Amino acid sequence: MLTRRLLLEHLGRAGGTAATASAMQALGLFGSTAALAAMPDTPQDFGTGKSVVVLGAGISGLVTAYELEQRGYDVTVLEARQRVGGRAWTIRDGDTLEMIGEAPQTARFSPGNYFNAGPARLPSFHQNILGYARKFKVPLEVEVNSSRSAYVVANDGSKLRMRTAINDTRGHIAELLAKAVHQGALDTAISAEDKAKLLPFLTVYGDLEDNFAFAGTTRSGFGTPPGAGVGTMETPAAPRPLSELLGNEQLPFSLFEDNMFMQATMFQPVGGMDQVSVGIERNLRRRALRGAEVQRIRHDPAGVTITYVDRASAGARTLRADYCVCTIPFPVLASIDADFPAPVASAIAGVVYDHSNKVAFDAPRFWEREQIYGGISFVGGETALIWYPSWGLHGERGTILGCYSSGDMGEKFARRPIPEQIAMARAMIDKTHPGHGADCINPIAINWTKVPYSLGPWPAWNKTNGGPNEGHNDTAPYRLLNQPVGRIVFASAALSQIPGWQEGGIMSAHAAVAAIVAQTRDRAPAEPLRRAS
Ligand SMILES: Cc1cc2nc3c(=O)[nH]c(=O)nc-3n(C[C@H](O)[C@H](O)[C@H](O)COP(=O)(O)OP(=O)(O)OC[C@H]3O[C@@H](n4cnc5c(N)ncnc54)[C@H](O)[C@@H]3O)c2cc1C
User: Fold this and answer.
1) How far is the CA of 191 from the centre of ligand 1 (A)?
2) I need a surface site. Which of 174, 414, 443, 524 has the fewest CB within 10 A?
């Protein structure tokens, strides 16, 4: 039997402390400080006199900088962009989106609206990022990740409310299972005792009649809604035939909210996802140096030399430090002049990144008149979904996403001209909410593979071997890049088991801090610690 302890040992071997720590969190074995337990316990002045240059001010770089400063290190953060947060990018009215090979787009949103072009939601079990938000007083609100009023839209345009898809399917399956039990088909699979318990459970599970038939359920919606006075009692909506449910290609997405990463309660920072990064930076002793594009990386036994260009003046600058933590995304790092050993350079060049796109519009809140308050309609194809805003409910206008697609479909979508991408997203909204495509104005489309300083949303470590991504990263390049190159340590969400989540970036940052502390300790005989007191 795979006990919880054996599971943890297995994860520990496969993924190191961070994997064990997140698994322990997931199993509820410890609380909010889970992965922090892997952080080195050092005096506050441990790193005094030692310098670290952090490349990149995304969540990994900012957390690295904060935690090293807390341990006394002198930290400089170099960031190519004019803002912090990296992929945690909130686009607001007036912001410009520039992509390689595309015309710049300027965002036009009504007051209070914005577009989380990258991350948009935080699961409850991502206690590291939620912990920093709490610590730095970044206000959070609930992100409504699923709505039972939203739709699953079949390829032929027919659609089901999520509540119908979930509960009618469950009703039919419960009825079928009850039939199988009555016919004795499961007699060898379950004991008589369990069989006796299963049947009454199935009546509750599927909302079955006394004869174990499924005749519809108010869980799927009302035929007649309950009213006031006499003669206004509720009736269930007529059940949809099983063949119609199974014929809807998006039916599997009725299970979307059961995915551990998508389960309520989910959160978002008030006003935009970048607020967590902004909050962390506010608590750094020294702000990130913006517009500082790293162009050359050299290391030697005594330290690291970084050459960067100040983009405002185009002047080259050189910075020397005892250590370096590099969080630059691998597709970007691959073309930076660096003296990494050949196997490391080829590992960096070989990391395959996924594709991901979003298309946002400013629109009157027509979806709320269909009782949709936040959540997602699944539409399939290259645009994949329609995502409704969780904030500003009952306001006049909101930001609606007409596309959020990744993988092969995302790759195909990103190859289309931007106007065509926008037209497809608008058409899908119109198909799902007839007549409202034209209400969606001021579009903005992002294709992450074309975004400078990112060049992709997250790595697909197992794309070439066809394996799953999250939680199963253990290729030789993945292992190699999780190792320091002398005094350079890599940190990034890409080097975690959850490359598509900021939490992974934080766990990787914590591992980088531990690696710098360990090197500092190991070198202490030759490079004595200069404690402040
Ligand atoms: C579409 C999309 C949806 C996502 N959804 C979610 C979600 O809902 N929830 C969630 O938690 N996560 C989500 N993620 C994942 C999350 O955004 C990332 O895991 C995380 O932000 C990565 O952080 P990082 O610090 O590792 O990298 P980055 O954020 O990419 O930081 C790297 C930094 O390096 C800088 N840089 C690059 N080149 C140079 C250079 N030459 N010199 C100096 N600086 C440089 C960049 O500008 C950047 O600031 C999503 C990502 C995308 C793209």
Assistant:
1) 52
2) 524
Kindly report the CATH number assigned to the domain that includes residue 326. 3.50.50.60
Structure confidence by residue, pLDDT tens digits, 60-118:
999 999 999 999 999 999 999 999 999 999 999 999 999 999 999 999 999 999 999 99
Q: Which of 99, 385, 502, 513 has most ligand 1 atoms within 8 Å of its beta carbon, as the pocket-test mutant?
A: 502
Expressed in angstroms and rounded, the spacing between residue 32 Cα and the centre of ligand 1 is 23
φ/ψ (deg, to 5) at 516: -65, -40
Please state, in angstroms and rounded to a whole number, the distance separating the CA atoms of residues 308 and 293.
Answer: 5
CB within 6 Å of ligand 1 — which residues? 55-61, 78-81, 86-88, 118-122, 293-294, 327-329, 332, 336, 356, 358, 448, 453-454, 457-458, 492-493, 500-505
Give the range of the structural domain holding residue 231, as residue numbers without chain letter: 160-247
- Residue-wise over 248-264: b if at least 16 C-beta within 10 A, else e? bbbbebbebbeeebeee
* More reliable by pLDDT, 12 or 447: 447
Ligand 1: centre distance to CA 86 (Å): 4
Q: What span, in angstroms and rounded, lies between the C-alpha atoms of 211 and 141?
A: 45
The verdict on 340 and 361 lying in the same domain is no
Percent of the chain exceeding pLDDT 70 equals: 93
- The pTM is what? 0.93
pLDDT confidence of residue 51: 98
Question: Residue 183: which CATH number?
Answer: 1.20.1440.240
Render pLDDT for 362-415 as a digit per residue (tens, 0 to 9): 999 999 999 999 999 999 999 999 999 999 999 999 999 999 999 999 999 999
Is 380 strand, coil or helix?
A: strand
Determine the Cα–Cα distance for residues 277 and 270; give it in Å rounded to an integer.
13
Ligand 1 closest atom vs CA 404: 1
CA of 218 to the centre of ligand 1 (A): 43
Query: For tokens 């992450």, what's the residue?
Result: 448
The whole-chain average pLDDT of the chain stands at 93
Residues 233, 165: one domain? yes
Answer whether residue 34 is part of any domain: no
